Please model this.
Amino acid sequence: MSGPEIPAAPPDPRPSLTLSFAPPSAVAKSGAPSQRSSAKSGVAPIEAQLVIVGSGPAGLTAAIYAARAGLAPIVLGGAEPGGQLMITDVVENYPGFPDGVGVPDLTAAFRAQAVRFGARLRDVDVDAVDLSARPLALFAAGTEYRANALIVATGYNPNAAVFADHLKVNERGYLARDGDSTASAIPGGFIAGDVDDYRYRQAVTAAGEGARAAMIRPASTSAGGS
Model:
C-alpha cells in the first residue's frame, strides 16, 4: 500500500542545497524504544530535507527562507494554524502596516508567500517524535515524516510538550537553544520563536528567529541556523 503523496515543489532556477539522509537501519538509538512503526503499518514515510513544526510568524518565515533556498520544506502547522499570534485580533506594530493588520490577513499572507516558493503546508498536529538519530522522525495524523533537519517553531505551551523528552528545557520551561544560535542539542534540530523566547514574544522577533533558523550553509549537509 503506497503512502500519502505530497505534490512536488515547482521547479526553481536557484541552486538547491542537498541534505543527506541516514540509512533506515541507523534510525533508532541503541537500547531505546523507537517510535518508528512504518514497517508495521505498511505506510511509507514521507521524506523531506527539512520539516518545520509551527505555522506562526517564526515557522512560516522559516518556510519562506528555506523554500527560497530550494529545500521544499514540509510545514506541520497544527490543526489550528497561526501560532500564538492567533490569541489576538489585530497586530498594530508589525512593520509595513501603518493602520495595523488583522491576524487572519497577516497569517494568510505568510502562508501564501511560503507556498509561492515551494513550501508544503499540512495543518496537522504532531503526535510523537523520534529524534534519536537522523533522519529525524515526526508522526502526525497517522503519517510519519522523516527529515535530515527540523525547525521547532511552535507556541510555548502546550504545543512544545511533544518535544520535551528530546530537547533540553530551561528553568523557565522553554525549549533551550545551544548558546546564541538557533541550534538545539540535537544534530539537525533548531528552535525558533515563542517556543524559546520568554522575553520579547513579538511577531516581528519571532519572524526574525525563523529566518535565522532557516539560513542553511551551502557547504554543509546539515541545517546551519545562526
